[in-house]
Every structure is written in structure tokens, then in C-alpha cells.
Amino acid sequence: MQLRNIQSQSSSNLQFNPLELIQDYFSKSYDILTEKLIHVLEHFDQVTYLELLPESRYFINAFVKNFLYIFTQPDYLLSDRYVTRFIQLNLTISNLVAISDFKTTDAYLELLKLQSQNYAKILTLCSARNNFKIDRRAFFDISPQLASLWYSNYLEIYRTGLVNRDVYQNLREHLVYEDQRLTDFYKIDDLYFGSTYIDEDSDRILKAKINKSIQNSQFIKGIVISNQPNPKKIAIISGFWFSQHSIYRILSEYIATLKDSYELTLIHLGDRIDDRELKTDDRYFQEVKYLQIQDGKLDISSIQQNDFAVIYYPDIGMLSESILLSNMRIAPIQICGLGHPVSTFGSEIDYFISGADVELNRNPEVNYSERLILLKGLGAVNNYPNYQLPPYLTVDKKKRSQFIINCPWYAQKVNYPMLVSLKRIAQEAKLSVLFRFFSGGGLVRKNDFLPFVKDIEEVLGVEHICVYPHLPYQQYMTIMEEGDICLDSFHFGGFNVIVDGLHLQKPSVLFEGKRWYSRAGARLMKNLGLGELVAKTPLEYTQLTLKLINNERFFVEMQELIKKIDLSQIVFQSKSNLSTQCFKKAIDFLIQNHEHLQKDVSQKPIWIS
């Protein structure tokens, strides 16, 4: 049976012979059989399908049927050397089954439950998509090492699975599981980054465990940092310092304020990228150093001896390198910014720089393990979007049959409660609505895309959705321009996407939460006189959206109000922006007062004005 090359990512046709698999099974050639199964699974691990043509659906159904039949046979035994690889393929298998007509592996897990020597097979097939009842403690009783590997791989589905009700509930339960034997973590960038999208009230639990695990590891204990701090030397550590990235778009103006007073070094994390659009901006840096994990190890020799007085991380958590480094003492003063606006909850970072206008009025420090530094303003300054508005409206909306709603949310921001709100909007709108999801680049791994689309279709209906994979910025903005309104996601809201919507003069409905990532957009809207479009409950959110759809007068009023706002003076970069001036003041203050602050047991925020 052959799967032809229906995706450009696939370099060759994929095939398997069901009869051969059965013959290998009956002849007990288990290792040969296992290699063949893994070969097909690894194809789907590496090649993402964006559509399911009839021939590929037939192929997937046939393979899943044969794989699950053979894999759950009591006398099919896995050699030890394959166990780890099968557990690592947990999400790929879950996605492949979700794409197929089998949907989940629940029935096969029930079969395995009654068998001996079923441990590795259950860890392979048990994912957050299952309703199968699991006993995590029993897993750890058998093998803490394999159970820890499974625990980490189980959480990887956060990227796209939160739209599924079962996944949403299972991940929130899994996240807070306590076991003293859970000390090893894998794919730490996915766990660290993903935990907040799963549950903003419990992410600190997992992040604290990961930090502790890193700090207790031989990797950290075996490294000696030699630092001779020069008060004029600052290192900026990020893997995303290029103009199109959201981190750069909100923090580059801050770094620009330091260039005349300090000698700046950029420490680039991850691979070097040749793409012109992803080219690192090194304008303000005297030197650029490169750090990345290779063969499972992070080589920090280039900074092991340094003279930095300050390390500033625009973001921590999106790359494994940043997580590992944040748990080391590289320089006496270590600071995190709002590139990924979440506390590290227990690393070696001393300060977190945020915006006084955004954080909670009372006790904002409860959301941080670092000492909070509050700048006047939002804590971020937007660069002007690299998109030229056309001089006239290019779409005749009167000829359209649907009211188009832009949902510019990365896939991990879309969750089941969010879809329930959208479903109510679709049901109560007087016009037919089309939700356009801009899911970003996170769907190109392990065949995440099609299960994500299918889960959304199941809630909202295929006629009400359009899901885009990653798009170049110009194309994304062009399609966004066709929309009537924009919606923000919750509980993890957006910021750059709100600015994109405003630039396109689209009314946007926002949800105001309790952390920076769900408050910054709301604060910005209020600063612009658009507080009427900010909701504080899911009910208000749906009501405001329906008002824009059903009340044409209100829609026009909001649109005209946005058109009159001079965004260049209020939102986009400006040398006179008080927030940028405050950022340099904050760095100056911390260099001058860090030793004194270290003796201060108070965790109360420090205000810089």
C-alpha cells in the first residue's frame, strides 16, 4: 500500500505492505516488524499534512488499523531498545489516530489493560485524547524513568489539543500531578512554555519543578562561571532578535536606549538563520555570540568567562537554551522582559521588568518569583507594522455572504472554553459568521494541523471556520484586512495581534484577565478610548461581539472611532515615549543599587518613573 507524495515536505512515496506485517508477526520477527512500524510512524512525525485527500485517508486508516491490531497483540513483544522511541512517538500516534476514522486509542487501551507485559505499550498509546482511566502513580511504581518520559511527552499536545474538551481537562489534571520520583523532564521548552496555556493558575507548579531539576542536574553543578563584572557591559540573550518576531516588535526600542551608554553583546540562541526576513538585527551590538544545544548538550564556553554586569533576557521559555541559562548565575544582575510575559517561577533571574499601567493594582508581585520592576506605561513599545494600508477598501462587503471574524491566535491560545463562546456567537448572530483562525507556525510538527482543524470543526461546524497554517506577515495582514472585526483570545491574550488589528482599523473585542498577557491589550484599548470593547467575563465577551455583528450602528461607530485615532503618536515607537526612557533608568538603577536590593527581603515592586 502506497501513500503518494501529496505534500511538498515529503521527499518520497511512503508505503507499507499489510500482508508483510502480518507475516512478520506470525513468524515472530518482532524486531523487523517494529522497524517497519517505526519507519511509517516517523514519516508522520516529520511530514505534516495540511489536507486529507481520499487516497491519504485510505492509507492512514489502513495503517492505523494494522498498527493497532498488531501492537496490542499479547505475544507481540517490544525489545527494550525500542521502548523509548515508541513513547517519544506518543503524540504522533495520537494525532495519526485522531486523523483516522478510529479517533482515539481508547478501545485498544482497554485491551491492553487486561494483558501482561503491557507497560510500554500503554505508555505509547495513552495520550490526553483518551478517556481511558490512568493511574500515574502505578506508572511511576514500575519505572520512574519511563514514566517521566511519558509524562513529558503527554503534555506536548498542548500546542493544538486544547481545543478538544477531553484534552483540555486531561492536561490540566496532568499538569499538577505530584510525585517525588518525577525529577527528570524532557522537551523542557514545550513543558515550560506550554504550561501557562494549559492552566495559568498552575503553571508555576510545573515550572518550579523544572527549575529545581535543572539546578540539581550535573550539567549545572559541573559548570563554573568566571565573571568579572564591568558596569558598562550588558548581554542580551534571545533567539528571536529579528524584525518580524513579536518579541523584537515590542522590546527593540528598549534595547536601542542602551546603545549610547553601554557596550552591548547579543547572545543568539539556537540555529543561525540565513533567511533574510529572519536575519538577526545586530545594529546596536559590539559583538554577537552564538549558543545552542547540540547532541543534547549546551556548550557555554563562549560566555563561561565574561565581564557582563547585566544579563537581560527579552524572553525565557520559548527555547530550551534560555531555560537552562536562566538557571545559571552568569552575571550578578539577571533580568527578564516581556517577550514571553510569564515569570520563570524559581530560576536564577533577579528582576522582571513590566508595565505599571498593565499589572494588577494590588499586589502584582503575586504573579512573579522575580522582583518586579514597573515602568511607566505598558512595559512594551510597539514597532510600526511592516504593512502598507491600501488607499481604498479592496473588498465589497455587500457582496459577501458572511461576517468575517479574525481570530489571530496561535494554536496554543485556542482552547475549548474559547470555542464554546464562539459557538454561542455563531448561534446568536443575525448574520452567518466565518471565524478565520491564524494558527501560526506551531502546527508543522507531528501532524498537529489536521487534528486541530477537525476538533474546531466539531464544535463550530465546517461552514463557520477557516484555519490557516503559518503565513508570511504580508499575506497574513492582507487576509486579516478582509475581516470585519478581530477577537482576542483568552485566557492568554495577544498584544502584537491587537496592534495589527488596530493598524488595519478593525474593531476588536478583548478579554481582560489577571496577568500581563491578558491585560496589556485591554490597557492599550482603554488608552485609545476603546474601553467599551473590553470584556471582563466570557458572557460580556460574547455580548460585545454579538453587538458588533447585530448592531450595524454600533459597528460603524467603533470603526469610525478607530479611524480617527493617530496610532503613530500613541501606540508605535517614539523617541519621546516615557516607557523607553524609563527602561534605561531601570537598568541604571539596578546596576547602582543591586547589592542593596539583594539585602532587602521585601518583594514589593520597584517603580521607575
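The record above closes out task 2.4. Task 2.5 opens with a second protein, given below.
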Amino acid sequence: MRSPALAFALALFSPLPLAAEAPSAGPPLEVRRAAGKITIDGRLDDAAWQQAAVLDTFYETYPGDNTEPKVKTVVFLTYDQDAFYVGIHAYDPEPGKIRAPFVQRDNIIGTDDNVAVFLDTRNDRRSAVELRVNPRGNQADAIYNDGSSNEDFSPDFFYDTAAEITSDGWTAEMRIPFSSLRYSRQEENHWGILVWRNYPRDQRYGIYSSPIDRGSNCTVCHSRELTGLRGLPGGGHFVGAPYVTGQRLGEPRNGLGSPLEDQSARTDLGVDVKWTPSASNALDLTINPDFSQIESDVGQIAVNNQFAIFFPEKRPFFLERLDLFDTPIQAVYTRTITDPKWGLRDTGKLGGLGYTVLLTQDEGGGSVIIPGETGNDLAPQDFSSKVLVGSLRRDFGASYLGLLVTDRENEGVGGHNRVAGPDFLWRRSQTDQMTGQFLVSDTETPDRPDLYSGWDGRKLTSHAGHLEWLHTGRDWTWRATVQDFGEDFRADEGFVPQVGFRLGRYALYRNYYPQSGLFRRVQPYVITRYVESPDGRLLQRQTDTGVQTQGQRNLSAGLEFDVREQLRVGDKILERSRATGYFQIDPGRRFSRIGGSFALGEAIDFANSRVGQGGDLSLFGTVKPTDHLALDFNADRQWLDVNAGGGLRGRLFTAQIERLKATYNFTARAFLRVIGEYLDVERTPSLYIFAIDARSGSFAGSALFAYQLNWQTVLFVGYADDRLQDPSGDLQRADRAVFIKISYAFQR
């Protein structure tokens, strides 16, 4: 049998296509160079628009099935020597019902009117830059990855927008500098384009510029080809964004509860640099990056969890071509780089090969996940490391083959972690695709048993594998998955909290499409899952039955029953049955979104290895009293009742978290954001098998004023106040901080 490594190498450099051709979205559309200057003011009155290419055939893909839309949309396309231009006329018979609040960047979502332009500048029909605009001219930008259907709004791009509400709807203009895009250097470029309009009224109507069949497993693959793009600039764009910050911190003078004492003011300097030596290549450099303005993560209750909690990446430096790290096994999770001192990154394309290489020095200070088969530990990363992450990918139509490499070399304490292996996506058709990944790891743990008992310089070598077949038909959808993770596999640059298991999972869905009533799609399903250790011991056996729906006012809801789940906790097999559910709906213009989830029934006490009765209730929502003010709230409450034996029974713990974020958007460029988050945990220590406090909790408050000309030319002024609960449950001030940041992007 041919080895997997040899088969991968032969396929990577083979000229033969390995996938079905991408579906046709109509004949190529020729884009002509602009006949004159275009001023980005939201009005389509410049003479150059009269000779622009026109997209005016659109299809309602939800709730309709490629039917004629209820509203008309016309898109104009042209370009000059520096930029690509998009003009939008979104007709509306009732302009007074347009949902157009002022929002922060990347907060244009399905509750409000907007148009998104997907540009596949590599013409590979696999990923695209997504640029959104709403009727206020606000922006949202993302990378859409067809392979995983992941829409990642973390990256930011330079582009200009303006919009205006008119008597017959709204109009918008986009100016997208070629320096913000990546494409090959050739006499005439061919790109792909797909335009999507979100029209939320009694339904959330999805309207596309290409027909997309129900059950299709791709979106960007339906892009229409653009031709006529001649003489595009070949790179040479430079952006340097130096910053200066100032901070004054107040800390307790004599421990928690004592008066705060102001520390000496501290200033800091740094710089972010981006240079595009060619149109397909980008070099990023950061020195002493500052992330103080990044919005805090939404709190999650971490009282009774089997594995570590995941948080998304938000830091700009790590976001160029983030889709190249989007693989079936999450072997790259850049938040493991907790305190980068400097970083260098090269991203580009050589012929049919796309690549990105990241090198950085991490000063440490965070936690390292120590994975296991039934849970994970956390160890303090009290040392610095050098980190290398690289990805190579070759596209074959809508499919690809890739290679991923990561390396963390610890400094001063010894040890390393190196991971490498291929991954692939084979899209056989619009309804069938296979994904897979195989990794090997070589690890030498740090020589720091004082930080973690297992860090004694031991050497570990192992593997991880993933293979999945997905069928997304109109009526039937199914997914079959197998995984195999060796017990000594480590991915210190990834998010892999569980190892030492073999998994088999099968899911079967039936799709129904009612033509009237509340629901527009109903999908009953059954999922079965079996997990065992390499030596055959049961780790988890579970069968779920449920139904999920979509309907009016963007309703999304589901209900699921775990009839009998068996789960290994420590050396015990515990069983539980429970019901879970979720819902989300967009009621209207002012009360724009509300949702929640629940889990009720038997629950596992992971800390004490037993089964009790408990629940988890969460609620979230967004209220927009005016077009300038948005109030976002989140609340979560968990509880667990147990029988500890010997007559001891009762409430083990109750944990709740509440978060309120208020944002006032003065304009599309200036906002004031205030966040308050409160966590409270009450426990019954006598019901635990180890010593634990009866109360714990915290409060985190922050306020931030921001003025942003673009995402790198900014002014931030902020205040933060953190408090911790003392043993009596009272909140005591832990620290406070006042900070300012100024950054300016110099471009050439």
C-alpha cells in the first residue's frame, strides 16, 4: 500500500484535477476601466458609473428556492489604476422600514439591511474576501472559507464606503484599494464575484447574485467570473502604523480590600508594518504589539467543565490569511501566543501554492493546556518561547491539499513541541465532500516540575488523524466522522484538550421545507457517537435525537434529547439523560434580537465524579432604542444538586454571570462603549471531596471612547475597574486602570 506521505506528495504536485468543476454562475462579466473619477459619497451620480459593468439578476435563496426576489438590487463594477469600485442600488418599496442603525465595524449582522460583496481574487472558488456595507456606510469585513463554511470577521482590510437612504431604497459605494487584495500578477486578471443582500422584514430574505441550490456544500464556488481587469498594480504598497500608549494603574496597598494606590504612569511604544512586495505577497512585522483596546471576551462559566473553554482570536497581527490555519484538527490556535514581543509573517502565493509563515517570540504568562483522555489540566507558561507556524496549500478547483507545521522552542527551561502533517478537502460534487488531516507530534516537556509534575523533560511522540464525509443533499444530509488521537499527542500551538481516544460519529438529517406558516425549514435528525481509548475502554457512548428549525423573523430553534449518555469521568462510567434546546429570533427594528439555550435533567459533577440533577439556562439579546444606541446583554445560570452519601445532599453549586454592553455610535467612526460583567458562584463545601471556598466571584467594568479613521489610524481612551469577592461575598476593588492609545497609519 502506498504510504500517506508519498500519496500526498504525488498529489500535491500532480497537474491532474482531483475535484469536480465548480458550478457555472452565468457567462463571464467584463469589467471596464472607469471613464472618470468616482467620489465615494454614497451617491451613484458620477458619470463613470454609466459605463460600469452591471449585475442586476438576483435570486432569493432563502426562504425561496432560487425564486425572483421581492426587491430589486443593481450592482455596478468598475476600476481604475489604484482601486476596484462597487456601486449598489438596493431598491425598497418602503424605505421607512429600512433597518439601518449606526454600528461598530464588523457588527453588521442579519438583523439589519446590508449588502456583502464576496471577491475571489485568486479565482480558486474556495475562499473570498467578504466586504459588507449597510445603509449608514458602516463596514464589516471577513474571510469566507468554502471548505469549512467558516465566515471569519477577525481580519480587517482598508476600504472606503459611503451610503445614503433614498426615496426608493438606499445606495452605497465602495472603493477597495488593490493593495488590500491579493491576486496573481498577469496581463489580465480573472476574479470571481458573488453579491449577497440581506433584507430583514417579516422574514430574513437572503438574496444572491447567483443561483445557489439547496443542499449545495459551497458558496464561493457559485461566484461569477469577472474579466477585463488589465494592468493591475503589482504591489509595492507599504503601511506603517506606529503607536504610543499611556497607562496609570491603581493596585491595593496592602492586599485585597485595602485602598488603591496609584502606580507611576507608564508609556509604551510599538509599530505594526505591512508591505506587499507583490500583489500576491504580504509581509507583516510587529514590534511590541499592544492589544489593550481589544474588547474583552464574553464571559463563560468555568465551574463544572470537563475540558478547557475556547475563546476566539481578535488580535490584528495574527489574522492575515487565517483561513490557511482553518483545518479539521485545530492544531493552530494563536491565542496560545499570550504575550508576543515581536512577530514576523510572510503570506502569499507561488503559482498554485498558497502559504503563510509566522515567527514570533512569546514572553509567556498564560496557561498551557495539558490534554488527557477524560479531561485536561492547565499549567502556567512561566517562560518565554520562540514560535513558528507555517501552512502550505495547493488548490485543485474547489478542492485542496495542504501541509501544516508548528514549532514551539522553549527558552531557559528546555523542551519543545513540533507538529506536522497534511490535510485535504476533496469536493467530489456540490453535495459530497471529504475532509481529512493527519498529524505527528514530537514533544520534549520543559524541565519545570515546580510548575507541573509532568514537566520533567520527558519525550513524547504520537499522532492525530481526522477523516469525514459530508453529504448535503436537498432532502437528506448526513455526516460520517472518524478520529484517532494518540495519548502522547501534543499541539501546544493549537486547541486540542483531549487525546488518547478513537471516535466514530454518524449524523443523519431529513430536510422539510413548508411553504406557509411559522417555519420555512424543519430538520429532524439522529446523531450517534462512540469514543474509546486506544486499548478499547469506553470513554463515551451517546445517541441524540432532535429537531432544528428556521422560520419567520430569522427564527432559529432546536430541541434535542440525550436518551442515555455514558461518559467516563476518571475511572468511572457515569450515565445521564437530559434535554437541551436553543432559540434565536429577530423580532423587529428596535428589539432586534433575542435568544437563549437550556440543558435540563441529569448532570455530571466532574470535580467529584458523580451524577446529580441540574441545569444551565442562558439568555442573550440586543435592544436598539435609537439608531445610535445598542444595548447587548448576556446572562447564564448553572446549578447542580447532588447526593454525596452519608445523609449529605443538596445544592453543590449555583453559578451565574451577567454582562451588559452599551455602545453609543456617534458616527460611523466614533463610539463610546461601556461594559459591565458580574460573576457569582455559591458552593456547599461539605458536598465536595476537597476543600473549596463557599463564595467566589468578580466584577469587571470598562469604558472606551474610540475615534477611528480606519482600523489602524485610531484614538482610544479607556478606563477599567476590576473587583473580586472576599470570603463574605462582598466585592473588593482589585485594580483600576486609565489608558490612552494613539496610532496612525502611514501609507505609500
